[in-house]
Write a structure and sequence with these properties.
By secondary structure, this protein is α/β, with parallel strands linked by helices. It contains eleven helices and eleven strands.
């Protein structure tokens, strides 16, 4: 994709990537590679917050460590976070991407709150989505969405490079879905093909604003869009996963947490299900 001023992606001027070191054997972050290649494609500034989760005496499981042992672990995690930031800055320089880094060492939950506050100062935030020991990924994604007012791209493992040629817009007629599609317009306009996907029976699909009524709005913005109404089968999340595979989607755009987070927690929810397993990066807005 071009990074010239005529490219739709030129509307994206700054991208934040957040990653947190929370253990000696942390998995590699896909969000870093994705965010770097996205910033290059858009000609945007890249900010990397490589944080380390500083241990706190309030954590009951630390009872086996003395103060000296905790300090040693904190220093090691801080060194790892700084190494991640330094390596990313070097890769950005080689790619011709303007990049700044910060490496805060903070206890939980301050490490999450700082990222959410920084997200308010950027067009979008790129974060990892995957199972972690303390589910810090999901906590960070939720806080960034609810506290920043900015969209988040949640990147599953293995998606180390930005791509958005083919995009699915998960459409349920809600305000969250409309917000997500609007926030994602630079990507939708740059894509080769966009499919609006609604899941449910006919009465559910037409209970709010049908995808066929939303499509002309995207067309007026220069989006190459089609509409696909699908039965939800085993569930909306499973249907979206299957359709994303059939469509060969590079990205899924969706409104996040239409219901309260408490209700999503107790009764499941499309957002949480896709954050656990998704065939493509999720562009989320709330």
């Amino acid at each position: 994709m071009s990074n010239s001023s005529s490219s739709p992606l030129a509307a994206i001027r700054d991208v934040l990537v957040g990653t947190t070191v929370e253990g000696e054997s942390d998995p590699t972050s896909s969000a870093i590679g994705y965010g770097l290649t996205l910033a290059k494609a858009a000609g945007a500034h890249l900010t990397v917050q490589s944080a380390s989760w500083r241990l706190s005496g309030d954590d009951a499981w630390l009872g086996d460590f003395d103060n000296e042992g905790v300090a040693v672990i904190d220093r090691r995690l801080d060194e790892m976070a700084r190494a991640v930031a330094g390596n990313t800055a070097g890769e950005a320089a080689l790619a011709g991407v303007a990049c700044t880094t910060e490496t805060p060492s903070l206890p939980y939950p301050e490490v999450v709150s700082r990222l959410a506050a920084l997200a308010r100062l950027h067009d979008l935030t790129v974060l990892d989505a995957g199972p972690r020991t303390y589910d810090l990924d999901r906590e960070t994604i939720e806080k960034a969405l609810f506290l920043s007012g900015r969209p988040v791209i949640a990147v599953p493992p293995g998606h180390d490079a930005f791509a958005a040629r083919r995009i699915i817009v998960a459409w349920d007629g809600s305000a969250q879905a409309a917000r997500a599609a609007n926030d994602a317009l630079p990507f939708l306009r740059a894509a080769e093909a966009v499919e609006i996907v609604s899941c449910g029976d006919e009465s559910e699909i037409h209970a709010e604003v049908p995808g066929a009524e939303f499509a002309p709005h995207l067309t007026r913005h220069g989006v190459n869009v089609s509409v696909n109404d699908l039965p939800k089968g085993r569930g909306i999340a499973d249907t979206l996963r299957t359709q994303a595979g059939l469509f060969r989607a590079d990205m899924i755009v969706m409104g996040a947490y239409r219901h309260s987070r408490a209700r999503e927690f107790f009764f499941g929810g499309v957002t949480r299900s896709l954050l656990r397993v998704s065939p493509a990066p999720l562009f989320l807005s709330h």
